[in-house]
Amino acid sequence: MPSRTAEEIASQPRLWRRAAALATDHDAALPRRTARVAAVGCGTSWFMAKAWAALRDAAGHGETDAFTPTEFPAGRTYDHVVAISRSGTTTEVTRLLEDLPAATVTTAITAVGDTPVAAAAQHAIVLSAADESSVVQTRFATTALAMLRAHEGEDLAAAADDADRALTAQLPVDPDALGHAVFLGHGWTIGLADEAALKLREAAQAATESYPAMEYRHGPIAVAGPGSLVWILSSPDPTVARDVAATGAIVREATLDPMAELVLAQRLAVAGAEARGLDPDHPRHLTRSVVLA
């Protein structure tokens, strides 16, 4: 019987195909072009915030930064702050929204509407269809990012088709042999590399790392070897893959949309957990949300 996480992973292509409609429905709640924007979140939501911030900034739609709530720079002003929180109960996010100047437009993207995060924001986008029962985040995070990509004018049809392929594609490494994994990204895919590494750490307790692709040769490549999987989501220089292969590591260069590559990494995380006799739905020491006193 598949885990709940596996079932939630499989639902992503369907949810992404609704992203364009979701973006249109919530256009008024999302940042206007040229607005100075900060995106915030914790854990997986922070990595989605990083990905969207880099994507929006690179598209020339407005200066966009990403922070965890506790690292939000004091005294810096933004036109619009977008907070991502699956549960809507993350204390750090709620406190930040409550403390922002009244002139700052705020939007919460969450899976649950009647929550402190939603109440603290001026606008709330509730992606209830993407909510999850597992502790490990998969479909909520990618659906939120798909909606934000659509808001920036991207067509998600090809990404959703690639996600379908990712659900049946062969895994790049035998889950029983999964030990050390490294994810490399460039631009907006750095956030996805961070998230892919987190999924394997959370679910499979694997030793994982993530870096901007061009930084990998500046030290971290020293521990690559025959026991390593180095997964390149994006790189501005093809010689990175060549140099990694020379270490004896298994190299995967992305062939799918970067979010679909993340789907494949999510599947590897679940398979790695099952190979180790772990529960992918409930990793040790983790809860669905961090709520502080």
- CATH top level of the largest domain is Alpha Beta
Tell me what the CATH architecture of the largest domain is.
3-Layer(aba) Sandwich
CATH superfamily of the largest domain: Glucose-6-phosphate isomerase like protein, domain 1
Q: Helicity range of the residues?
A: 25-40%
Secondary-structure element order, as H and E? HHHEHEEHEHEHHEHEEHEH
Q: Strand percentage, roughly?
A: 15-25%
The rough form would be described as globular
Mean pLDDT: 96
Give the domain tally.
2
Total count of helical runs of at least 4 residues? 11
Distance between the termini: 38 Å
Class computed from helices, strands and strand pairing: alpha/beta
Query: Which strands sit side by side, in order, in the main sheet?
Result: 2-1-3-4-5
Number of strands: 9
CATH fold node name of the largest domain? Rossmann fold
Oligomer: single chain
**Low-confidence stretches at least 5 residues in length (pLDDT < 50)?**
none
Described by strand count, sense and barrel closure, the largest sheet is:
5 strands, parallel
Structure description:
- The chain has eleven helices and nine strands.
- With 293 residues, the chain is an alpha/beta fold.
- It folds into two domains: 4-155, Rossmann fold; 169-275, Glucose-6-phosphate isomerase like protein, domain 1 (Rossmann fold).
- Strands 2-1-3-4-5 form a five-stranded parallel beta sheet. The protein has a four-stranded parallel beta sheet with strand order 7-6-8-9, sandwiched between helices.
- Strand 1 (37-40), helix 4 (44-58) and strand 2 (64-67) form a beta-alpha-beta unit.
- The chain is globular and about 55 Å long.
- The termini are far apart.
